[in-house]
């Protein structure tokens, strides 16, 4: 796929739709008060851990190597629609997905396709070839953080949902405004482990501890039939699932989270042992010439059939100007 078209039409590794189960007709006309979740940061103690995984499904997460990170503060949950709205109201910031693409930045793309929008997970009605993400991703005009699935959707109706349709640049702008920063990949993985050590999943070795899902991922037959066994067909409000050992929510599933590191599949072979900051540049063998940053945690579109990158130690990546309705972020802060 040519780079210009790639930037306009994101094929994310894992996807997540942003609506919860629809209310019944009896509930639909009842206005329910919503308690807005307050932003809280928790202290991550720092320490040494084994970064990466030997799982053969994730060659870019090898070799497993010992890394030490200093203590830091981390948002207990992903940045919400309400929090991002406060940022936009204060700064009048306009996200990348809200801007009309410029022809000079997308050579070869027809002028009629240069319309502001973003990628939205749109499930097909039957089983499709899983090697063709174009079967379930659609570039939707008017899709952005305010309207995650397009003009018919409204983030204001879900203030406690993670904000989505934000690219790396947007997440970075919010973090700077908030006096914070995006986590390094090493900080993110250390925090996700929650002090539990090495396991198949960040929560342990069983997919369903006690017979229950503890993260928002995709159940059923991907991508055409989601059973929503975990309680959500799309994105879930923050804090819907149990917190980990450090008091953090949704480090697995729900939405992908931006990290600050450039992405290179070979970085772990040369990573520093103390507070690694990532490589000095990026390389994405799937789309040479694009600038990519690391994404972590998987999303509500991860399943054991497709994109199993909710597993511990696995990595994701994304072009810095691209967004989708299963991609968000959380912030960290240095301890002064």
TrEMBL record:
Signal peptide: 1-22
The organism's place on the tree of life at top rank: Bacteria
Keyword Cell cycle on entry: no
Pfam name, any one: FGE-sulfatase
Residue stretches making up the Sulfatase-modifying factor enzyme-like domain: 39-332
InterPro entries referenced in this protein's UniProt entry, alphabetically: CTDL_fold, Sulfatase_Mod_Factor_Kinase, SUMF_dom, SUMF_sf
UniProt keyword list: Signal
Protein's UniProt name: Formylglycine-generating enzyme family protein
Native source organism of the sequence: Mucilaginibacter boryungensis
């Amino acid at each position: 796929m040519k780079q210009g078209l790639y930037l306009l039409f994101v094929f994310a590794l894992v996807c997540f739709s942003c609506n919860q189960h629809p209310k019944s007709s009896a509930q639909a006309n009842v206005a329910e008060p919503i308690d807005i979740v307050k932003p809280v940061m928790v202290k991550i103690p720092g320490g040494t851990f084994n970064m990466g995984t030997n799982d053969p499904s994730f060659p870019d997460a090898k070799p497993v190597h010992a890394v030490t990170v200093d203590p830091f503060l981390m948002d207990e949950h992903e940045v919400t629609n309400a929090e991002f709205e406060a940022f936009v109201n204060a700064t009048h910031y306009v996200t990348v997905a809200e801007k009309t693409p410029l022809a000079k930045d997308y050579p070869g793309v027809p002028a009629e396709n240069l319309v502001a929008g973003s990628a939205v997970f749109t499930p097909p009605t039957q089983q499709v070839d899983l090697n063709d993400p174009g079967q379930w991703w659609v570039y939707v005009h008017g899709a952005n953080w305010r309207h995650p699935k397009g003009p018919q959707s409204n983030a204001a109706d879900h203030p406690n949902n993670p904000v989505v349709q934000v690219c790396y640049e947007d997440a970075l702008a919010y973090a700077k405004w908030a006096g914070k920063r995006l986590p390094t990949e090493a900080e993110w993985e250390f925090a996700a482990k929650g002090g539990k050590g090495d396991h198949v999943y960040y929560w342990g070795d069983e997919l369903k501890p006690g017979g229950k899902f503890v993260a928002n991922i995709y159940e059923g037959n991907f991508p055409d039939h989601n059973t929503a066994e975990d309680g959500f067909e799309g994105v879930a409000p923050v804090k819907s699932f149990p917190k980990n050992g450090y008091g953090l929510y949704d480090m697995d599933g729900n939405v992908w989270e931006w990290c600050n590191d450039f992405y290179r599949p070979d970085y772990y072979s040369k990573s520093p042992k103390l507070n690694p900051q990532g490589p000095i540049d990026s390389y994405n063998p799937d789309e040479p010439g694009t600038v990519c940053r690391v994404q972590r945690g998987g999303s509500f579109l991860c399943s054991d059939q497709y994109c199993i990158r909710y597993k511990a130690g696995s990595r994701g990546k994304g072009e810095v100007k691209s967004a989708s309705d299963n991609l968000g972020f959380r912030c960290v802060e240095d301890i002064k």
